[in-house]
Structures are given as C-alpha cells and as structure tokens.
Amino acid sequence: MRAPTAHAGDRRHGPGRVILALYLVFVIGTVSRSAAQILTRFEAAPLAYSLSALAAVVYVVALVSLSMPGRTAWWVSVVALSVELVGVLVVGTWSLLAPEMFPDATVWSGYGVGYLLIPLVLPVAGLWWLLSGRGARSRDGAPVAAR
Questions:
Q1: Which residue in 49, 65, 71, 120 could disulfide with 77, CB within 3.0 to 4.6 Å?
Q2: CB 103 within 8 A of CB 44
C-alpha cells in the first residue's frame, strides 16, 4: 500500500513547507528583536525599531495566512507578502540613501543584508509559490482565484 501523498495545493508541503519554516524563523527573530529594542532602547532609534515591529507584524500575518487553506487566507497571504516586498524595497533603499535615519539596522535595512538578503528573497519566493499552480489551490484542489 502506498503512503498518501500531500495534495499539490496544500501550502504546507514541498516548497510551501520551506517557506513556512523560514517565516516561522523570521517571526521568532523579529518579534523578539523588536520587542527587546523597543523595551530597552527605543529612544536611540525610534524609526528603525518601529519598522522592525512593523516587519514582525507582517511576518506574523504572513505565517498565519500561509498556514491556512482557502481563498481568504490566500488573499491575505498575497497582500501580506506584497506589503513585505514593498517594505523591503522601500526601507532597503531608504536605509542606503539616508543611513543617518537608521542608527541601528532593521530586518529590512539594506534589503535584509544582515539576514543574508532572505527578507528580499522570501516574499518573492512566497508570491511565486502562491501564484503558481501548486500554491494557488485550496485543499479540495480548486483554484483559489476561481472560487
């Protein structure tokens, strides 16, 4: 008897599992880092630490929505990953053009160079997965966009 295989549309298997694992790591890292920064030295870099907190919220929303099946979760994921990508591009560019505004780095500073550019690559990979035939399907196999 063959073992059941994961449904291609289940975002918790295959490449989706790797993307979810990376989001979990970023949730743990950004939530703990931004909380520590805000609680201990917010006055030193309020913009940077506020942007770190924003990134943490975006990562939490992305992780939760990517973990859930269905059309609403798919749309929330697309929006969250799009916001993340725009955030990385805007903050990354801003931090390079006006480094004095960022006396301490954020997860998105320098396009996430302090995190091996994963903050730049992750939303692109996540959006690719969501918009591909495999990531864009609900558990019952129906295309999410057509529902």
A1: 65
A2: yes
Total count of domains within the chain: 1
> What residues contact residue 13 under an 8 Å CB cut-off, 6+ apart?
6, 7
Q: Do the domain assignments include residue 8?
A: no
Distances (CA, A) of 112 to 2, 19, 22, 104, 126: 43, 17, 14, 13, 16
Sign of CA dihedral 97, 126, 23, 136: positive
Q: What domain range includes position 36?
A: 15-134
Give the E-state strand segments of the chain in sequence order. Answer: none
Any domain includes 4: no
124-135 average pLDDT score: 87
pLDDT at 4: 32
What is the model's pLDDT at position 12?
56
